[in-house]
Structure formats: structure tokens, C-alpha cells
Amino acid sequence: MLPQEFIRRKRDGGAVDPADIAAFVKGLTDGSVTEGQVAAFAMAVFFNGMARAESVALTLAMRDSGSVLDWSFLPGPAVDKHSTGGVGDNVSLMLAPIVAACGGYVPMISGRGLGHTGGTLDKMDSIPGYTAQPDNDLFRRVVREVGCAIIGQTADLAPADKRFYAIRDVTATVESIPLITASILSKKLAAGLGALVLDVKTGSGAFMARARDAAKLAESLVAVANGAGLKTTALITDMDEPLASAAGNAVEVKNAVDFLTGDFRDPRLEEVTLALCAEMLVATGLAPSPAEGIAKSRAALGSGRAAEIFGRMVSALGGPTDFVGKTGKYLQAAPVVLPVPSPADGFVASIATRDVGLAVVALGGGRTRPRDAIDHAVGLTALAPVGAAVARGEPLAFVHARTVGQAEAAAKAVAACYRFGSEKPKTPKAVKRRIAL
Q1: Nearest 5°: phi and psi at 269?
Q2: 97-108 per-position pLDDT tens digit
Q3: Which residue, among 99, 105, 116, has the nearest Cα to 299 in the 3D structure?
Q4: How close are the terminal C-alpha atoms of the chain, in Å?
Q5: Which of 94, 190, 247, 251 could join 157 in a cystine, given CB atoms 3.0 to 4.6 angstroms apart?
């Protein structure tokens, strides 16, 4: 396979052979294919797309560029969830222990924050002592003994994706649906799962803001995953407002613990979390229907079993043994907490959700460069949802910041994200659509 001829075929809209795709990915991994050739191929795919068979071949080749985990030793099914990202999306922290409490095994390999969206791994890093990147032996042991483990991607899982994504990031080819599909699924396939559920976000806080783009991505992911042998379904969920009432790292962990213990649950967050849990339980045969899956998930929460499993997972991966019961003792707290006064009377009509996420990034809770350090303490809490009745001067949220100046700047930015009306708006469904083969 000559890389230039391979690129030429795709540039001219022709089909590329799976064997040539595998050879190109091998060159991508070992460096024998140049950065310029990778960029040219990415641009050719950006403009001409890929047939479904080509997407499957690319995904499988990227999966096979490194190690593939094997969970056949587990006494139950291995299943995971992937979200395309949003603001206040801490679903994974509750979902993994809930599904584990229902008999599933969740080896969850998560990522860090990207742009305005928070990363699950950054949230877990706010827990003192937590080992977010354990060796494979510890990862397997925790999954087997506890039922779930939330960790970061190791260097030997789908290494081709790491180089490919870095080149796409600087050549304006990130938005290609076939390449997004291969990037997401190559890592999930390398995780050795028996089933996968996807949470594809749409709305002002999502990467795929338009509903039709989110549907195209979800359909591509479901078709390619199943074509590659991984049983997969997707839910398209709303990100036109923050999912949780907290946005940040430590503040979202606290929100998740409150959810698990029953101290407080945001209604939309509960709807999405339970719907995804139900999909996972149905996919693995642990529940006969989504309704039964939701009932089992509620029972796992009500019994305290899910909260117990979360605490055991934290402890097994190096965190405090009493973290669930004494969360406030361990999570960093910002020294400045400032209310965001509402500039108007009325009902919250809409929220510029992406800008809420950017306000957290500006506080230091996200990254503007890949190597930036995260301030786990900063963020936003008590975010007023769409439909909330507010009076001028009442808090729309609370800013948690390092300095008064940073808090005041964030409060101004958050207030500007809100729009108000004289009548209460209809609240959209948090779960919009299910996509399956």
C-alpha cells in the first residue's frame, strides 16, 4: 500500500480497501506514514465521507493498534457508557455504581475535559489519593471485586487514535462524523466490552448543537459499533441547559454523592441517568425492559447499594475509605463563594449553556491548553434551571472561585447566559430519542 495512492483514491471519492486501511493505520501508529499524509487523508474523508464498511474497517484497525482488554473472566456482563460531553454532565459517577449494583460490570475508561465540556477523569482527580490511571492488574481486580472502576485511557489502548486526533485537531478535520465515530469506538472496542450505550448530546451546550447533526452522529456510532461486533444503542439527550445544577469538578463530585445517597437529585439529571442505566441493563439481559431497568436502578439507589459501591471503588483505587460519608472533609473548597444576582424578574426562558461551561474554564476548572493544570475547587453550584421563577437580585447560581476578582468576572459571565420571560416555558424532555439497529 502506497500512502499517496491510498489518499488519492479517497480524495477522488473512491472506495478504499479494508486491508489498505489497516496498513495505513499501522503506518500511522509506527510513524512510517507522515503527518502530512495523515492530514491529507483526514481532509479527504472530511469532504468525501466513508462508506459504512470503510468506517468499520478504520475503527477495527485503530482498535487493533494496541492492546485489547479481555473481561471473559468476569461472572457477569461487561458494559459501558460514552457521552459526547456537556456542561454539568456527571452521569458516569452515578451510573457506574448503579449498574454494578444491578449485576453488571462497568470498566469505564473516561477522558479529560475538552473545550467547554467537563471531563469525568478531571472530576475523579478531585478526590484525594484516587488513582485515575492504575495498571491493568489493579483495574481488572477492582472491576471484578467492586463491580466498576472509572479510570483514564492507558497509552496502549488504541494508540493510533491519539496521533490521529492530534493531527485532526490542528488541521480543521475534527468534525468529520466517520472520524469522530472511529475515534470514539476504537477506544471502546479496545476496552473489550460486551455492550455499549451512547449518550449523544444536542443543544447549546453540546458539540453537536443541531438535532440533525446529533442524530447523524448517533446513527453512525450505532451502525459502526454493531458492524464491528459490539452491541450498541444510543440516546439523544438535551444539553440546552446544564444537566446538573453544579458545573466544575469537586462541586460535581459532591452533586454525584448527594445523588447516590438521596440527599439531593436534579430532576433532569435523574431522568438521563436512569434512562442510560436502563439501556445498559436491557442490553446485557439484566432487565427485560427499560421500565424494569429503571425500577431496578431506583431500587439500587434506594437500598444504598449504589452509594456503597461508589465508596468501595474510590477506596479500592486509593481514595479515602469514608469518602461517601465525609465528602466535605476531602474535597477542596474554593475560598470565595459569590452569588450571581438575577438581572430581571420572571422565568428562566433559556440558558447559553456553552458559555456557562466557558465560565468554569475561565475560573480554572477547565483547560485552554492540553497541559494546563485544573483547579478542582472552582465552579458553579445551584444553577437555576429553565422554567425557574426568579426575582431581580435573587441568586441564579453561586460562583466558587480563588479570588474576588475571578468570582465577580464569572458572576457577570453567568448572568449574561440567562434569558428571561414573563411566562413559564415548556420544559423539554431530557431524553429526546432512542437510536438502535
Answers
A1: -60, -40
A2: 999 999 999 999
A3: 99
A4: 34
A5: 190
Ordered by where they begin, the domains of the chain are 3-49 (1.20.970.10), 79-326 (3.40.1030.10), 333-421 (3.90.1170.30)
Instruction: Pick the closest to residue 90 from 238, 236, 232, 254 (CA basis).
Output: 254
3 state DSSP class of 138: helix
| HSE toward the beta carbon, residue 4, CA cutoff 13 A | 0
CB 99 within 8 A of CB 280: yes
**Looking at per-residue confidence, does 427 or 211 come out higher?**
211
Spatial contact of 130 and 317, defined as CB atoms under 8 Å apart = yes
For cell 468499520, what's the residue?
56
Give pLDDT tens digits for 336-364.
999 999 999 999 999 999 999 999 999 99
Distance CA 188, CA 63 (A): 8
Contact 331, 250 (CB under 8 A): yes
Q: Rounded to two decimals, what is the model's pTM? A: 0.93
Q: Are 320 and 326 in contact (CB under 8 A)?
A: yes
Q: Which three cell numbers stand for residue 345?
A: 424578574
| Closest of 191, 199, 196 to residue 140, by C-alpha | 191
| Residues carrying an active site annotation | 80-83, 120, 168, 183, 187-188
Residues in the chain: 437
Q: What is the pLDDT of residues 24-44, one digit of tens each?
A: 999 999 999 999 999 999 999
CA distances from 369 to 62, 336, 346, 364, 366 (A): 25, 25, 39, 11, 9
Report how far residue 141's alpha carbon sits from residue 99's, in angstroms, rounded to the nearest whole number.
17
For residue 296, the model assigns a pLDDT of 98
Which segments of 31-130 does DSSP mark as H helices, in order? 35-48, 52-63, 91-101, 120-124
SS3 (DSSP) at 79: strand
